[in-house]
From TrEMBL:
Protein name (database record): D-threo-3-hydroxyaspartate dehydratase
First-level EC class: lyase
Protein EC: 4.3.1.27
Domain of life per record: Bacteria
Domain D-serine dehydratase-like: 263-371
Keywords: Lyase
Family, per entry: Belongs to the DSD1 family.
Length: 385
C-alpha cells in the first residue's frame, strides 16, 4: 500500500477515534476505473449509493459520467433528490405501505423507479395508482442466480406480473437483476461465467416481455465483481454497482481489486494491552467495524479487518482478530507478538481496512475525507430508513 496518496499525518491526529476515513485519491481512481469500463462496454452506469450514502461521494460518481443512481431506501431517494439527483431507482421490492412516500417524491418531480417481483405487489401498485391518479415507473426484478429475490427469466410469473402492470396503467420500465452469487467465487473464470449468466438471464427476460408485445426499454444488471469482469454486455442498457467506490477486503479476496484500491478505513487508537497474549486493545470494536465477517469463508480471513499504520501502509499478519462493542483486539496471526507493547504503545494511531465497506460505513454519521492537496473535509453520511 503506497503512502503518497494519504493525508498529512497531522490532519489525522486531530480526529477523535474511531473515525471513518476516505482516501479521496483512491476513491476517485476507483470511480474513474468503473466509469471507463462502462464507457468501453457501451452501457450507462447507475451507481448504487447505499455503499456511501453520502452526497459528496455520489456527486463525484455523477461528475465522472454516471447516469442516475440506485438507492436502497426511500430516505436515500429523498436526500439525493433534495441534492438535485432526479433519476433514481429504488432497488428494493415495493410494498403498499411505502407507495405514499414514493408518490410524494414523484409529485415533487423525482423520476423515481420502483421494483416488484410478484403479482400481489404489482396489483397493489396499480390499485394505488388508480386511486390517486398516479402512474408509476415500475421495473421487474429478475433472479438470475438464486441469490435472493426476483422472478426467474423463464417463469410464467414474469409475464403475469408484467401484464398486471401494463394493463393496470403503470409504466413497465424494464427488468433488473443482481448477481449476488459473484461474491462467492474468486477466480477470473468463475467471475466471467457468473457475469455472463447474469447478462444472459436478464436479457432473456427482456426478450420474453418484448416477444409478448410488452415494453421493456431498460435491461439493468449489476454487482461490482460482474461489472469488472463481464466479457461483454450485449443487450444490457445499464449497470448498477456500489462497493467499487471504496472496495474492501471481500472484494480483494474475490480478486477485483488490491489493497492499494481500498479507500475506506477506520482510524483507531491503541488504548491497552494484554501483553502475555500478544494483544493490543484498540477503541474500534464492532460498533465501528460492524460484525461483518465476510472474509471468514474466503481464501484469506482478515478477522474484523487488516491493520495499517497511520500512513495507510499495511502491517502484514496483523489484524483485528476479535471485537466487543467498543473494544477491538489487535493481534498477529500465528505466533503471538510478545513485543506488542513496544510495537504498539498506548496512544498509537492505526487504520483498519474493513471486510465490508457498506457495513463499516453504516456505523458512522460522517466520513473524514483526506487528500494531499486539501484540508481534512467532513462529509455527512445518511442514516435510517
Amino acid at each position: 500500500m503506497t503512502t503518497k496518496q494519504n493525508a498529512p499525518l497531522a490532519s489525522l491526529q486531530t480526529l477523535n477515534t474511531p473515525a471513518a476515513v476516505i482516501d479521496v485519491p483512491r476513491m476517485q481512481h476507483n470511480i474513474r476505473r468503473m466509469q471507463s469500463r462502462m464507457d468501453t462496454l457501451g452501457v450507462r452506469l447507475r451507481p448504487h449509493v447505499k455503499t456511501s450514502k453520502c452526497v459528496e461521494v455520489a456527486r463525484a460518481q455523477i461528475d465522472a459520467g454516471a447516469a442516475g443512481i440506485t438507492v436502497s431506501t426511500l430516505k436515500e431517494a429523498e436526500r439525493f433528490f433534495d441534492d438535485g439527483v432526479t433519476d433514481i431507482l429504488y432497488a428494493v421490492g415495493m410494498v403498499a405501505s411505502k407507495l405514499p412516500a414514493a408518490l410524494a417524491l414523484r409529485r415533487r418531480g423525482c423520476d423515481l423507479k420502483i421494483l416488484t417481483d410478484s403479482v400481489a405487489s404489482a396489483q397493489a401498485i396499480v390499485a394505488f395508482g388508480a386511486e390517486f391518479g398516479a402512474t408509476f415507473d415500475v421495473w421487474i426484478e429478475i433472479d438470475t442466480d438464486g441469490h435472493r429475490s426476483g422472478i426467474a427469466p423463464n417463469e410464467d410469473a414474469l409475464l403475469d406480473v408484467a401484464r398486471v402492470l401494463h394493463d393496470g396503467g403503470a409504466n413497465l420500465g424494464g427488468v433488473m437483476t443482481h448477481a449476488g452469487s459473484s461474491y462467492d467465487v474468486d477466480t477470473p473464470e468463475a467471475l466471467v461465467a457468473i457475469a455472463e449468466q447474469e447478462r444472459a438471464g436478464c436479457v432473456r427476460a427482456a426478450t420474453r416481455l418484448r416477444d409478448a408485445g410488452l415494453p421493456c426499454p431498460v435491461v439493468s444488471v449489476g454487482s461490482t465483481p460482474t461489472a469488472l469482469t463481464a466479457a461483454h454486455l450485449e443487450g444490457v442498457t445499464e449497470v448498477r454497482a456500489g462497493v467499487y467506490v471504496f472496495f474492501d477486503l471481500v472484494m480483494h479476496n474475490i480478486g477485483v481489486c488490491t489493497t492499494d484500491d481500498l479507500a475506506l478505513s477506520v482510524l483507531t487508537t491503541v488504548i491497552g494491552h494484554q501483553a502475555d497474549k500478544g494483544w493490543a486493545i484498540v477503541d474500534a470494536g464492532w460498533m465501528a467495524m460492524s460484525r461483518d465477517r465476510g472474509t471468514q469463508k474466503q481464501k484469506r480471513d482478515f478477522g474484523y479487518g487488516q491493520v495499517c499504520r497511520i500512513d495507510g501502509s499495511l502491517m502484514p499478519g496483523y489484524q483485528l482478530s476479535g471485537v466487543n462493542q467498543e473494544h477491538g483486539i489487535l493481534s498477529r496471526e500465528g505466533e503471538p507478538d510478545l513485543d506488542i507493547v513496544a510495537r504498539f504503545p498506548i496512544g498509537t494511531l492505526l487504520r483498519i481496512l474493513p471486510n465490508h465497506a457498506c457495513a463499516t460505513g453504516a456505523q458512522f454519521p460522517e466520513y473524514h475525507a483526506i487528500a494531499p492537496d486539501r484540508d481534512l473535509a467532513v462529509w455527512p453520511r445518511l442514516h435510517g430508513w
